[in-house]
Amino acid sequence: MRALDHDEFLAMRRFPALDGLRAIAATIVILYHFAGPKWNWMSGWVGVYIFFVLSGFLITTLLLREQDRTGRISLSAFYLRRVFRILPPYLVILGGIIVFVWLRGEFFTREFPHALKYYLTFFNEFLPGSEGNGSDNFFSGSWTLGIEEKFYLVWPFLLVVAGAAGLAAAWRKLALAFAAFALMAGLVGVTSGWVLNGPQLPIYRSTVHYAILLIGCVLAIAMHYRRSYAVLKPLTHPLAAIPVFGAFAVLHVNMESLWWETGSNLGLLIAYGLLSAMLLVVLISPGPLRWLLATKAMRFVGERSYSLYLLQGPVHFAVVEAIPPLGEHRMISALTVFAVGLAIADLIHRWVEQPMILTGKKLIARRQERKALRAAEAELKRPAAVKAPSGAR
Predict the structure, then answer these.
(1) What is the pLDDT of residues 326-359, one digit of tens each?
(2) Helices of type H across 192-239
(3) CA 137, 143, 146, 152: dihedral to nearest 10 degrees?
(4) What is the pLDDT of residues 33-58, one digit of tens each?
(5) If phi over 0 gives left and psi between -120 and 50 gives alpha, with beta otherwise, what is residue 122?
(6) Which of 38, 71, 149, 239 is the most buried (most CB within 10 A)?
(7) What are the protein's UniProt keywords (predicted)?
(8) C-alpha 347: how far from chain center
(9) Torsional class of 138: left (φ above 0), alpha (ψ -120 to 50), beta (otherwise)
């Protein structure tokens, strides 16, 4: 048993165990919503913060590796990848909900004209507490997408500003990530109030979510550069999984009680984000935990977790309409929502997500080919340098 070398980490093209972590995050969110109060000890509501740390880490890692490979970060290519990855499933599921409620004659009673202003502009997190007073529209869980889309819009641009390459750029990026984290954490008092366990509505628009995303960004930068990676390398030893996973599990199962019994809610979320980041290091490294979360079944759910997460609301409604006793929140209700949601998510994954991701890649490749062709043509048209006479000074 040994720790993971930095070169081995940079050579990794996929982190399959992180798909398993996505699967766990999506599952516990569904259990939180539909399994009933007996399962509150699972603290399923913090599953969204696992997603946030994962997003910050993976997006930043991809951008930094692109910068090393090509010498730059292409913002246009990044935004195209995000558009073709995020929008198709999102719009298909939202469109399906709209058709469903329209056919039931509930489009206006559920105040969709009001809600769509938020859903179609990715200001989802501002819908709770706005003027709309309609009943559930089955898409309220999408508030996390509003947070992530604004993060995707700003963070890559800041990385470009931080510098292209070299040791100085590495420390600039770390300093930038730490400064952004401090700013977002510092603005919590303004955006939602420091006591996050008060009324639920303010927490949706809190900058604490961006602070958690930035924990993943800091981790990605630290692992990308050799000198900062050396600080984290002990966590990549297989034996490190024992204390890291133990600490994460203890905090996770106690989050529900600690959240309501202490006045340190911001500290709890930051601690949870930090332990989630440490867990990512463990899952990237060799060991039984990585093997377990990288199994085919875990990857299957994880690869479909995005659609599964968005589908939970409408699927629960449809399940209850078909089997009214499942309207009571209990484990059988949650498992049914999970099974039906996963089946639909699989169809969306096969027929929407994968084809649209491939389309985006082809579009980016064609753009790069045209750009390279234009550069070659410009080089051919450039006049040859005139050689100076041998006696010229």
Answers:
(1) 999 999 999 999 999 999 999 999 999 999 999 9
(2) 201-204, 208-224, 226-232
(3) -130
(4) 999 999 988 889 999 999 999 999 99
(5) left
(6) 149
(7) Acyltransferase, Transferase
(8) 21
(9) left
